[in-house]
Amino acid sequence: MAALLYRLGAWAYRRRRTVLMAWMAVLLALGALAGTAGGAYEDDLSIPGSRAQQVLNTVAAEFPASSGASAQVVFVAPEGRQVADHRPVIARTLTAAAAAPQVVRVADPFTAGMVSPDGRIALAYVSYQEKRAQLEKSSLEALEEVFRPVREAGLRVEFGGSAYADTSSEGESGAEAVGLLIALAVLVITFGSLVAAGLPLLTALLGVGATITGLAAAASLLTLPTTAPALALMLGLAVGIDYALFLVARHRSQLATGMPVAASAAQATGTAGTAVVFAGLTVVIALAGLTVVGIPFLSAMGLAAAAAVVVAVLVAVTLIPALLGFAGERLRPKPGSRVRRRECGDGRPTMGARWVRLVTRRPLVTTLAVVAALGVMAAPAAGLRLALTDNGSAPVASTQRQAYDLTAAAFGPGFNGPLLVLADLANSAHGAADADRQAAATALAERLGTVPGVAAVGRPQLSADDRYALLTVIPETGPQDERTEQVVADLKAMGGEYVAVTGSTAIGLDISELLRDSLVPFALIVLGLSFLLLMLAFRSLVVPVKAALGFLLSLGASLGAVVAVFQWGWLADLVGVSTTGR
Length: 582
Prior knowledge:
This is RND superfamily putative drug exporter. The protein is of the alpha+beta class.
């Protein structure tokens, strides 16, 4: 491997113009392809073959008006006023909303009884014929424009529901830019050279650009979730800077000893490049291992992020040596610089050397202290609960988060995660004749209303052939509350074989359960493959065993920290988490 990478580095150095032009051509070609034939990202939160998914498919076939996305429109009257005072203008806008693009049905809050007890808040539902992924942005903009007269009349209007459930990274580019500036400042301080600091950032940005445009082009052929480009961006920048840093740091150290530029570029690629390739492979194994979970959107996220890592590795072992050639002698540390003194051995130990001496002076004590600390950090992981994000996790200032919080406060948290119950009225368990099926559906609604944790049950809807009844069940708790999970289990137990629970909340619970069940197999697969890879790299058993133990300890500590912050709320404000423990 080292010899092959040495030759690759030497070739890239000699043919640096060719290598640079090739990467620019790849970036331009992918950009053109994404711009002309690129597709849209789509959040397909489904589990093929699961009971909830099969039932949801039946709902889509038998109740097409209930299978699309829905928007919640929340009207809030000023303090001391009643929302009913503005009923005429609300009625006019609801009529206009029914004619808005892609809308199939609008529910009036006054006729549906969706007015809060204090009379200040009303909740209307707008149903779309398409799912969220097929909704045009212009359709949502048109809906918001329809309700402008209500705002002008003095009411506050917020929009939520599944139509506004967008998990994309919109608005995060500013945070990424700040992160890049911080990274640049750290690299400048570390290297003492703007050129040396800029190379890792430049190559990381090019690699991320190639990955993001490639994903946009692939979205026309594959179903990629909206989180895929954000994950690829963050991971691509992280490993792109890291891997390039390996080579640049090694190259400068060699230049400080007087090595010629060409020889140093090739040797840095052969030595540090080997570490980059094996490090990249272990990350790719971990990300590709997400496919074992069996959830399509999670598999797509993992493979998209793995593609970003592969591109970062390729950039590091080809473009970096080419750019080292363009930089030439400008990367050689100046006489008297910190790098030159360190490499020439002036006798003064570096901070890193002092740290190594400290931790290796008492290796047993250090090991026990680290293991104990990681064990304490891992302890909260025993209470780990998994769930999908919803509008309650959106930024506090966003309209979907405002609608979510207002709905929970006025009507109860369960209105943000209604459950769909589908009953097959034609089976022998119900034994209802055609004429009695409406009565059977009504009786079932009454029974479901007696389940502990159920706040309300909507009026049953019958399918066109009266075989199926669809009921909306509102739990007392929110979609991410563990008590809602118990409500779903009780509803399934009460209904038996011919009554099934589905909807986004039920499917989300199925996904969470599948994630929990897949956590151990995923860890074992990643651990086993990484162990084999490290055995090949180091030709040793001791190093892979140490790495495996370190992986398990760091994984446990990481999961424990996640529980402490996101479930228990420790340091939540510090990291910008506004809602925890739901």
